[in-house]
């Protein structure tokens, strides 16, 4: 029968975790508004969730796509509006 040995390597210091945690909090405090950006505001006739990654503008009688849609948008719902074309929007993209 062979004896197995278990060797434990030392893990990162708790001080290092605390230092990284404090650094990340400081970054969020100082740059949080910049990271969110003014473009993450929700258009006035729409509802948004998940930091404006979901923008829902259904049944608002819109005749054009709102201009203040966040660049972080992953889901955009414009159903049941009066939008006739996307020419202006496609020129911006």
From TrEMBL:
The keyword Transmembrane helix does not apply. SUPFAM superfamilies: L domain-like. The keyword Transmembrane helix does not apply. It holds the Pfam family LRRNT. Keywords: Leucine-rich repeat, Repeat, Signal. Residues 1-38 form the signal peptide. InterPro entries: LRR_dom_sf, LRR_TM_domain-containing, LRRNT. Residues 41-75 form the LRRNT domain. PANTHER family: ANTIGEN BSP, PUTATIVE-RELATED, LEUCINE-RICH REPEAT-CONTAINING PROTEIN 4B. This is LRRNT domain-containing protein. It comes from Ataeniobius toweri.
């Amino acid at each position: 029968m062979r004896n197995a040995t278990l060797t434990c390597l030392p893990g990162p210091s708790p001080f290092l975790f605390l230092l990284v945690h404090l650094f990340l909090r400081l970054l969020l405090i100082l740059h949080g508004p910049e990271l969110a950006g003014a473009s993450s505001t929700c258009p006035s006739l729409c509802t948004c969730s998940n930091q404006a990654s979901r923008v829902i503008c259904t049944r608002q009688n819109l005749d054009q796509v709102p201009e203040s849609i966040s660049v972080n948008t992953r889901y955009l719902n414009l159903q049941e509006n009066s939008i006739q074309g996307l020419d202006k929007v496609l020129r911006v993209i």
